[in-house]
Specification:
globular; four-stranded antiparallel β-sheet; Immunoglobulin-like; mainly beta
Length: 467
């Protein structure tokens, strides 16, 4: 089928409106799950840039996310886009003052249909970060809480969750002489804010990663440092802040992981799964599991160091896929240094590197977990990479995804085409004036844009074709 976009207002010399078309389909059969499509390459201000947060999706499979910088004032954005990369829109650009600055993590789509999130800085009190809300169309933005630092906590670095009681739960990271991080809750209208727990060091410091409400109704999480062995901790606490307990203290030795950098998930087997950014026999991080009562802690996989094909430094929450396997992101790799995506079974078997990222226009340096759509495609974000090296949104699939024409821009007398197509495959860019006779303008290997230096004065159609 054809996918067409009319560029209203773009008029060549004969005043005919230029139409852009791309042929959908016709791209090879299923191959190994290494096919990546860059759906959005961020370019900084006034667009977004540096995507560190995970994606979420609504029932219509519209994706929502954040960028740490970029936007109208270069203090970060909240954005939305369709699964195929079309429909990208900035919902909110932060101004760095009352509404916050630098949304470091993704947004929560709550049961009321609104988006909720945090910024790591900004706010009206002491530049200590905020909790905010907005509607999915970008209207109704509100700052629900501005952190005050000190005993109130500062610099939230974890995404919010919605508890079974309808309250929002999160954490702050900042460490000073009084506070080594906090756990808090707040109502969706900004009322009912309270601190559930203040870390002191012996119980951990710097809580990181999204909290988890387990099937038993308690909250579970990790502290990235501190604890009895000064290597991080796993904790449990009731939603009213009572019964805080440490389930496990990590060891600073090669037999254990250290520095957990992502929250926990509860598998379909009701076991907790998580990752450590460092440690393990290869000193490059681990995947672990532990029961909800703190028993049966086990390292499922230790990432090797210095191998030519190995990933290093797992980061962000794991995802239990539709097939029951665990999927995760690693922020680094031995070669070519861009991190990548892996999967592993819940018993520790079957570890597979699904994709190694490279620098440059490829996706590079993921900082968070993944989202899986109903058709099994994995979606994620990266801090760097993309055509401007300002981060990107990518899709990882068993097979090549249909190519999409995302946008056309005019620079001088040239047309610049931005496509979303499977990286590493070769495509001919073809042009026609009548949809009957086509000529090949050039060949691209995504991710990259194509510039038509000599566009037809009467307007033209474009398509991608795999030779």
């Amino acid at each position: 089928m054809w996918f067409c976009i009319n560029k209203n207002g773009l008029r060549p010399s004969n005043s005919k409106i230029l139409s852009l078309c791309i042929l959908i389909g016709g791209v090879g059969g299923a191959i190994a799950q290494t096919n990546i499509t860059i759906l959005k390459s961020f370019i900084g201000t006034p667009d977004g840039g540096v995507c560190c947060g995970a994606l979420t999706a609504d029932t219509n499979l519209v994706l929502y996310g954040t960028t740490l910088i970029g936007g109208a004032s270069n203090f970060g954005t909240v954005f939305r886009m369709n699964l195929d990369g079309t429909g990208y829109k900035i919902l909110h650009s932060f101004d760095g003052t009352n509404d916050g600055s630098g949304p470091y993590v993704g947004v929560l789509l709550a049961s009321d249909g609104n988006l909720y999130g945090t910024t790591i800085a900004g706010g009206s009190v002491s530049n200590a970060g905020t909790v905010f809300s907005l509607k999915t169309d970008g209207t109704g933005f509100a700052t629900l809480h501005a952190f005050g630092g000190g005993t109130d906590g500062k610099n939230p670095e974890a995404a919010l969750i919605e508890g079974s009681d309808g309250m929002l739960y999160g954490s702050t990271w900042y460490v000073n002489t009084n506070t080594s991080g906090t756990l808090f809750k707040i109502g969706k209208d900004g009322t009912g804010y309270s601190i559930l727990h203040t870390f002191t060091g012996a119980d951990g410091i710097q809580p990181v990663g999204r909290l988890l409400e387990g099937s038993d109704g308690a909250l579970y999480g990790v502290a990235g440092d501190g604890g009895a062995r000064s290597a991080g901790a796993i904790f449990r606490v009731n939603k009213d802040g009572t019964a805080f307990t440490n389930l496990y203290f990590f060891h600073s030795n090669p037999n254990d992981g250290v520095v957990p950098m992502g929250g926990l998930i509860e598998g379909s087997d009701h076991v907790l799964y998580g990752t450590c950014f460092q440690g393990g026999t290869g000193f490059s991080g681990t995947v672990f599991k532990i029961n909800e009562d703190g028993t049966s802690y086990q390292i499922l996989y230790a990432f090797p160091e210095g191998t030519e094909t190995g990933l290093e430094r797992p980061i962000g929450e794991l995802l239990e896929g539709q097939n029951g396997a665990l999927y995760g992101a690693a922020s680094d790799s031995s070669e070519p240094y861009g991190g990548g995506i892996y999967k592993i079974n819940k018993d520790g078997s079957g570890y597979t590197t699904l994709r190694m990222f490279a620098s440059g226009a490829d996706a590079s340096t993921p900082q968070c977990g993944l989202f899986q759509s109903t058709d099994g495609v994995l979606y994620g974000t990266t801090e760097f990479g993309g055509t401007s090296d300002a981060g990107c949104v990518f899709a990882l699939s068993n097979s090549s995804l249909p190519p999409r024409l995302l946008s056309l821009s005019v620079y001088g007398s040239s047309n610049i085409l931005q496509f979303a197509a499977t990286s590493g495959l070769s495509y001919d860019v073809e042009r026609s004036s009548d949809l009957s006779s086509w000529s090949v303008l050039g060949t691209i290997i995504p991710p990259t844009n194509y510039t038509d230096l000599n566009p037809l004065p009467s307007g033209a159609f474009y398509r991608l074709h795999q030779p």
